[in-house]
Amino acid sequence: MDFVELEAIEGLRWSWNAWPTTKNGVSSLVIPLSIMCTPLMQSTELPLLPYDPQICTHCAAVLNPYARVDYLSRIWDCPFCYNRNHFPISYSGIGETNLPAELFPTYNAVEYKIDKVDSKFGSNLHLGYGWSNGFSSSNVSLSSMSVGTPRNIGGAGAGGEVRGFVGPVPAFVFVVDACMVEEELRAVKNELLLVVEQLPENALVGLIAFDAMVRVYDLGFSDCSRVVVFHGGREVSSEQTQQFLGICSTKWGQQQLGKTPVIQKLGFLLPVSECEFNFTTAIEEICSLAVVMPGHRPQRCTGAATSVAVGLLEGCSVNTGARIMIFTSGPATLGPGVVVDSDLSDAIRTHGDLINGHAPNYTKSCSFYNQLSQRLSDASVVLDLFACSLDQVGAAELKGPVESSGGFMMLGELFESDQFRKCLRQIFSSDEDGHLKMYFDATIEVVTTKDVRICGALGPCVSLRKKNSIVSDREIGEGGTYKWKLGTLTNRTCIAFFFEVCDEQRAEPGSAFLVQFITRYRHGNMGVRKRVMTAARRWAENKSPEITAGFDQETAASVMARLAIYRAERFLARDVVRWMDDSLICFASKFGDYIQEDPSSFRLSSNFSLYPQFMYYLRRSQFIDVFNCTPDETAFFHLMLNREGVVGSLIMIQPTLFQYSFDGPPVPVLLDVRSISADVILLFDSYFNVVIHYGSKIAQWRKLGYHKDPNHENLRKLLEAPELDAQQVVMERVPAPKLIKCDQHSSQARFLLAKLNPSVTQNSTFIDGSEIILTDDLSLQDFMDHLQALSVKV
Questions:
Q1: How far is the C-alpha of 73 from the C-alpha of 131, rounded, in Å?
Q2: Is 589 exposed, middle or buried (0-12, 13-18, 19+ CB in 10 A)?
Q3: What phi, psi does 452 have (nearest 5°)?
Q4: How many whole angstroms from its chain centre is CA 535?
């Protein structure tokens, strides 16, 4: 079974592709029943349908290929709850030879373009498009359907917009740290000016600068620079923020009179077309007005500035898609969300301080930002953090609202770097129609058959706490619901969903069960889209060969990694490692073939054999072993793992290693110290770092300039090949990984050596000229020997 091909069709990866029918059978699997869902995965065959989906009146499932259809009566039976639903008049021409796209067996995923404004955004402008006058298999051939990036199939004007559509617009509030050094501040200003030039003319923009005070710029006042100033040391509520900015009284009065609230035209949040000159002027005027005392850090009120930005968007009723983008170069030293005192004699918190309770500000600041997370979710606002500093900036405290809103986090060294410029430009990139490649205000709803219960989700989402009969009492991560909120998502955003089996009425082995994911979001043109992915799998008897054959060890490793970091944020690292080891021993004992008390007889079948290896590298990874990592770096690593798909997660857990030599094209080699050789080049990719490692002989030839000699053309090509491949990886990945070039035995080689399996150490008796890693860590072979010995015990 090719799980990668299935993912390309469904957008889903299952840890188990056949499920037991009982709770006892599920618990014996050790690895939980889970699905890695990429809601907006790019597909080569994804139809965009210009009409509303047909929804079951009982369970709210959307019409899909697994539904039974009575063509004469124009009735379809829901495959989830077996409720009978009538087709509308627009489906009057339906027949076996005239099917709507959503019933085609090959379309497990379809996307609907909703032709109306949501009732909370404005008047209903539905144009009456249904299946019969939008698309059908009789009037449009399959070959003419849109593939790849979805585009309209009818009923729309150029650019995919329905003529007369009056929808909401995106809003962006830029929050700039004025305490940066002059060169860094100039780099941020220049990039923001470029960003605003690329924004759609109707996009709303706002500007806030902060140091010891928070300054909100009035972009509609052109006579001079006009700002509203907030004290950075005070926590200001949303109502107070709106009152000080003067944006609440009119709205409140209209509500009192029973009138529809109208967004006031305010100078703090204006369309680009109306304020581009004032915005440019305000950007150029930003500078720090605070005096930094010797021996102290700058007075920086990041938390207060963020709270004011959220209050501004709440007051302006921009609840259809907005981003708050923070640009900072240091930790908050003042007000809510403070990370460290301004006195430089007080060191910023470390992991040891967090464990021992020596970080007095950490708990209070996290509590403040967690409250902010709920406000962001309610207002459909995304929080992004761009931090460039040689020290920590407080990303660990900010991780909560950034992750729950689906925001972007970048930790770098300099704002003048290409890494920052590339990240910002990637976020504001546009598609071929000129729309931003941003998706806002998303919700994901899960529908299952009656024998399946939803436990929760791990990823950049927030539980909406909506319960029904398929929601389990057992919660994992964001649980207690069948519906989740996402501030934003991309084509790569992946969420892990967890399930359990309800065996009150035991399902029949061999019968099918279904899971449907319904993702509603706002496209870059701010039109509403709804993507529906439906997948079916079969029930199987406990200990059935179908269950073992359907095990996806790559997905299982990704899911266990998410569960591990979820635990690591709540328990001590040693307790997490113990939990991982216990789970692995139970797993190997359950699925291994062996003679009891005979470790040498232990074997794992091919679709289980790599899983222990993944767990070995996960134990040694920066996700679990935080030695030599700051809390900010750990928060960043956790945030990135929690939103990556299976392939990206595996690269983080077990990095890839390719060998380049004169013998032929590059080949993958074992992530082992024995792969290092004097006459080869290694390309190492750990997702966050890309290392080009030159063997000692290759490095010596390069230093002597042999590659410049036309007689040594092969050496030149050998040196170029890994650099081209590394640049390709760096270009495709956001945030861009750090590119490191190093020679064998050099100090920078530590980035590679730290991740390799230490099969040869200072304690090895037979070295055979191999590179040595000075460590007391267990090698993979020792780890497997211990695992086998423990697994075969009675």
A1: 17
A2: middle
A3: -115, 135
A4: 22
What whole-number distance in Å separates Cα of residue 325 and Cα of residue 306?
9
Going by C-alpha positions, the residue among 289, 299, 284 that lies closest to residue 334 is 299
Secondary structure class of 451 (helix, strand, coil) = coil
The three-class DSSP label of residue 324 is strand
CA 501 to chain centre: 27
For β-strands 495-501 and 33-37, DSSP reports them as: antiparallel
CA dihedral 291, 297, 303, 306 (to 10 degrees): 60
Is the separation of the CB atoms in 212 and 333 below 8 Å? no
Ordered structural domains, the chain, with CATH = 3-113+438-543 (2.60.40.1670), 171-246+265-428 (3.40.50.410), 655-756 (3.40.20.10)
Neighbours of 256 (CB within 10 A): 8
CA dihedral 55, 56, 59, 63 (to 10 degrees): -70
**Bridge partner list, 529:** 113, 521
Helix then strand then coil, % of the chain, to nearest 5 = 35, 25, 45
Q: List the beta bridge partners of residue 512.
A: 538
pLDDT tens track for 713-753: 999 999 999 999 999 999 999 889 999 999 999 999 999 99
For the sheet containing 12-14, what is the strand order?
12-14, 33-37, 495-501, 452-458, 478-479
pLDDT digits (tens, 9 = 90+) for 608-664: 999 999 999 999 999 999 988 999 999 999 999 999 999 999 999 999 999 999 999
As beta bridge partners, residue 489 has: 439
DSSP string, 719-771: HHHHHHHHHHHHHHSSSPPEEEEEETTSGGGHHHHTTSB-SSBTT-S--TT--
Beta-strand relationship, 18-20 and 528-540: parallel
pLDDT digits (tens, 9 = 90+) for 360-382: 999 999 999 999 999 999 999 99
3-state per-residue secondary structure call for 271-300: EHHHHHHHHHHHHHHCCCCCCCCCCECCCC
Q: Residue 57 has what DSSP assignment?
A: T
What are the residues whose beta carbons fall under 8 Å from the beta carbon of 437, sequence distance 6 or more? 429, 430, 431, 490, 524
The answer to whether residue 129 scores a pLDDT higher than 70 is no
Is residue 216 within 8 A of residue 282, CB to CB? The reply is no
pTM for this one? 0.91
User: Is the CB of residue 553 less than 8 Å from the CB of residue 29?
Assistant: no
Q: DSSP 3-state assignment of 19?
A: strand
CA 649 vs. chain centroid, Å, equals: 11
Q: How many residues does the chain have?
A: 794
Q: Which of 380, 401, 406 is nearest to 492 (CA)?
A: 406
| DSSP codes, 681-714 | EEEEE-SSEEEEEE-HHHHHHHHTTGGGSGGGHH
Sequence-distant (≥ 6) Cβ neighbours of residue 172 within 8 angstroms = 199, 203, 204, 205, 206, 322, 323, 325
Separation between Cα atoms, residue 69 and residue 77, nearest integer Å? 6
Determine contact, residues 675/657, Cβ cutoff 8 Å: yes
